[in-house]
């Protein structure tokens, strides 16, 4: 039902400099697989077939990763190393990849709007690949697609974070519908310390209905002078319904050094070896 998944991947990744000076943050490997490939795996597992990637300057390696490398394949053909390409070959065969450039980094809301022509007039998913989500039973996007089938409105994934970390996230307030589902009544991007409406932080998984594009177009720059998806979603929530879903699984903020190391250790033990 939801076939398209948008990957905003144009950001500068300043928290990971100098590594991200010439390498996209999304290409940083957790063990032996780049972050973006984990996100694409999750989207495929949720039944999506069209991966729409918003790129920026210096992000060519993202496109190369989801394409054939004839020279390399010829070189290792018939050797034991060939099996190391099995997963990425299957990803390339399972999905279509399209790309669009965000010419100016005007924020996540603007990056999503940049993907409009790729997504069209359909509900779609958004994955921020630097949030790595792991749930062996059912990926977070698959959980959200199941909810979308029921409610047919935009959904954001949320996680409880310590009160002294809410200023790093978009934070929601909502009316409880079930144990893990809320209807959003308020949303604040990176609230000042002590002013957050709750400790429920939005993480990098969204399902959005296409009316969000017109709303983003009419959204003024907010926090940090950037066009914030949080501000657009609050408008959508006021005019209709946006749900916040406490997902099942683990999430690592791989845009930060600490989260990246945690994810690496976890995936080495539980995914790579396991
Ligand atoms: P972040 O807030 O993590 O920013 O963006 P960043 O630039 O990637 O990293 P830091 O904070 O400087 O270290 C959240 C997501 O939105 C994308 C980023 O690529 C990331 O996936 N993004 C952000 C864009 O695609 N375009 C933008 O203008 C801003």
Furnish the topology, listing elements before pairings.
Elements: E1 4-8, E2 29-30, E3 33-34, H1 35-45, E4 50-55, H2 60-65, H3 70-76, H4 86-94, E5 96-101, H5 108-114, H6 116-119, E6 124-127, E7 131-134, H7 140-151, E8 154-160, E9 170-178, E10 181-189, E11 200-208, H8 212-217, H9 229-239, E12 242-246, E13 250-253, H10 257-272
Parallel strand pairs: 1-4, 1-6, 4-5, 8-12
Antiparallel strand pairs: 2-3, 6-11, 7-13, 8-11, 9-10, 10-12
The structure holds uridine 5'-triphosphate (UTP).
Give your account of this protein's structure.
- Its EC number is 2.7.7.9.
- Keywords: Nucleotidyltransferase, Transferase.
- It catalyses: alpha-D-glucose 1-phosphate + UTP + H(+) = UDP-alpha-D-glucose + diphosphate.
- May play a role in stationary phase survival.
- Belongs to the UDPGP type 2 family.
- The chain is α/β, with parallel strands linked by helices and 274 residues long.
- The chain has a single domain, classed as Spore Coat Polysaccharide Biosynthesis Protein SpsA, Chain A (Alpha-Beta Complex).
- The strands form 3 sheets. Strands 5-4-1-6-11-8-12-10-9 form a 9-stranded mixed sheet, sandwiched between helices. Strands 2-3 form a two-stranded antiparallel sheet. A two-stranded antiparallel ribbon has the order 7-13.
- A hairpin with a 2-residue loop joins strand 9 and strand 10.
- It is globular, with a radius of gyration of 18 Å.
- The protein starts with a strand and ends with a helix.
- The model has no long low-confidence stretch (mean pLDDT 95).
- The site of uridine 5'-triphosphate has 20 residues, from helix 5.
């Amino acid at each position: 039902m939801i076939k398209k998944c948008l990957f905003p991947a144009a950001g500068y990744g300043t928290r990971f400099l100098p590594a991200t000076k010439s390498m996209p943050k999304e290409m940083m490997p957790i063990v032996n697989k780049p972050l973006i490939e984990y996100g694409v795996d999750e989207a495929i597992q949720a039944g999506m077939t069209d991966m729409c990637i918003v790129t920026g300057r210096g992000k060519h390696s993202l496109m190369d990763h989801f394409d054939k490398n004839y020279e390399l394949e010829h070189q290792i053909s018939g050797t034991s190393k060939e099996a190391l390409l099995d997963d990425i070959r299957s990803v390339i065969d399972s999905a279509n990849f399209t790309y669009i450039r965000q010419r100016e980094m005007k924020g996540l809301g603007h990056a999503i709007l940049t993907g409009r022509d790729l997504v069209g007039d359909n509900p779609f998913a958004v994955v921020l690949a630097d949030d790595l989500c792991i749930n062996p039973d059912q990926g977070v996007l698959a959980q959200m697609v199941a909810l979308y089938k029921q409610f047919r409105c935009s959904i954001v994934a949320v996680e409880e974070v310590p009160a002294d970390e809410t200023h790093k996230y978009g934070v929601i307030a909502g009316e409880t519908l079930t144990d893990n589902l809320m209807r959003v009544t308020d949303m604040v991007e990176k609230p000042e310390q002590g002013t957050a409406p709750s400790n429920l932080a939005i993480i990098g998984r969204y399902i959005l209905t296409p009316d969000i594009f017109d709303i983003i177009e009419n959204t003024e720059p907010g926090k940090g002078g950037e066009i914030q998806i949080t501000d657009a979603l609050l408008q959508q929530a006021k005019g209709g319904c946006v749900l916040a879903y406490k997902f099942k699984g683990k999430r690592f903020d791989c845009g930060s050094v600490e989260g990246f190391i945690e994810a690496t250790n976890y995936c080495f033990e539980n995914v790579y070896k396991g």
